Backbone:
């Protein structure tokens, strides 16, 4: 299922670089934090809190290699099916943790104040 144009526009506005390496523009692809194949539902496909822009390389490697997937989970880039998309995500470029909001923005958070 393709992302709705409005959701993709919000996503591009919020995420101007890869959350892992900082790549920009043509290298960015939409990534579902909870994949449908991992228990994610169709309702989450266009949920902005379940989406982030990352580079095609990071997207491919976290889907193909268990060690990298574990790192992505520790960063909140990948979530397990039982986790909520309100779990914070780490922007390695900015060295900051953010909560992704349903309004299409992100709010910086202190990881020490967040319950996992």
Residues:
């Amino acid at each position: 299922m393709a992302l709705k144009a409005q959701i993709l526009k919000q996503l591009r506005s919020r995420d101007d670089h890869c959350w892992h390496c900082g790549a920009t523009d043509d290298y960015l692809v939409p990534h579902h934090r909870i994949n449908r194949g991992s228990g994610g539902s169709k309702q989450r496909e266009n949920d902005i809190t379940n989406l982030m822009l990352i580079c095609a390389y990071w997207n491919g490697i976290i889907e193909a290699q268990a060690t990298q997937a574990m790192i992505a989970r520790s960063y909140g880039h990948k979530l397990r099916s039982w986790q909520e998309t309100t779990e914070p995500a780490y922007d390695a470029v900015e060295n900051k943790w953010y909560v992704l909001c349903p309004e299409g923005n992100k709010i910086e958070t202190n990881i020490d104040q967040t319950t996992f």
